[in-house]
C-alpha cells in the first residue's frame, strides 16, 4: 500500500484511459492543448493573476486559470481572489485528483507490481543515454534501485516526480491554498476524483516506442532544470497570460501517449465545463480554478461554455468597481 500511495503521488496529474486501444507510436509527443483560442489569451488588467468570467442573467462564475506546474509556496496577490471569495456560493477546484478506489485496490496493486519489475531501468538504455540518466538521478539523490522497472513510460513518470520534488515544483499550488481559504471562510468546495487503477494498466499497454519518447523528453527537462517553469510562474502572478502559457508541458504530452489519454482529457474538460454551468444555476457568484491551457484551448473549458451560449469575459475587460476595490494585496502562499 505504501508503494501504491507513492505511485498515486507520482501520477498526480495523469489520468486513466476509457476504452481506447493503444495509438500508433508517435514521431514526437503532442500537446493535447497546443491550439489555443487566441481571443481568450488576454493579459490581465487587474492586480495579480488573470481572471475570466462566465455568466448568465443572474450568476457569474469567476474563473482563475492556474498553472499545471508551479513552485511550492508560490507568492501571488490574493486581493481580487479574497474579494470574490466573500459571499461566493462555491469554489470549484481543478478536476485533476486521482486515487485508487477501494474496489480496485487489488487490481491497481497488481499492475503496480508489474510496472515495478524488470529493472533497474538504466540497464536497458544505450550507453550515451545511460550516462545522462545516471548523472540526473545521482543529482536527484537516487540510486539505480529507485527505478526498478523495464517500462520506459513508468521510468519517465517516476523521473518527472523526482525532478519536480527536488526542484520544489508542485502540481497542487495555488489550488491547495485556495481550498484552505475557502474552507476557512465556510464556502462549499467542489472537487472530483478519478480512479488511478486503469491508468497503471494503460502504462503497461503503452507502446515501447511512445514510452521511450516520453522518457527522453522527461530526461531532457530534468537536465534543463526548472527555469522555464519559474519564469512562467512569475508571469502568471502578474496576469501575463502569454508568458504563463510558456510553462513546460512534458507531462501532458506524455499523458497523450497513454492509451485512452486523449479521451480522458476530453472527459476532464467536459466535467469541468459542466461544473461551471451547474454553478450558474444558483444566483450570485462562484469561483472556479482551471489549469490554464485546458481553460483556453480549442475545445477547452471556455470554448465549450461559449458554445452553450454563455457569456465569457476576458481578463482585458475590466469592471471599474473591481479595479477600485482591489487596493489591498495580501501576497502569499501556503
What does this structure look like?
By secondary structure, this protein is α/β, with parallel strands linked by helices. The protein has one domain. 45% of the residues lie in helices and 11% in strands. It contains 15 helices and ten strands. The chain has helices spanning 2-10, 79-85, 105-115, 127-139, 152-166, 175-184, 197-205, 208-224, 227-237, 241-244, 250-257, 261-279, 292-296, 301-307, 320-324, and strands spanning 51-55, 59-66, 70-71, 91-92, 97-99, 169-170, 189-190, 193-195, 284-291, 311-313. The protein has a six-stranded mixed β-sheet with strand order 7-4-9-2-1-10, sandwiched between helices. Strand 1 (51-55) and strand 2 (59-66) form a beta hairpin. Helix 3 (105-115) runs parallel beside helix 7, helix 5 (152-166) packs parallel to helix 8 (208-224) and helix 12 crosses helix 14 (301-307). The longest helix is centred in the last third of the chain and has 19 residues, at 261-279. The two termini are 28 Å apart. 43% of the residues are buried. Residues 1-27, 102-113 and 324-331 have low confidence and may be disordered.
Detail the topology: elements first, then pairings.
Layout: H1 2-10, E1 51-55, E2 59-66, E3 70-71, H2 79-85, E4 91-92, E5 97-99, H3 105-115, H4 127-139, H5 152-166, E6 169-170, H6 175-184, E7 189-190, E8 193-195, H7 197-205, H8 208-224, H9 227-237, H10 241-244, H11 250-257, H12 261-279, E9 284-291, H13 292-296, H14 301-307, E10 311-313, H15 320-324
Parallel strand pairs: 2-9, 4-7, 4-9, 5-8
Antiparallel strand pairs: 1-2, 1-10, 3-6
Helix pairs in contact: 3-7, 5-8, 8-11, 12-14
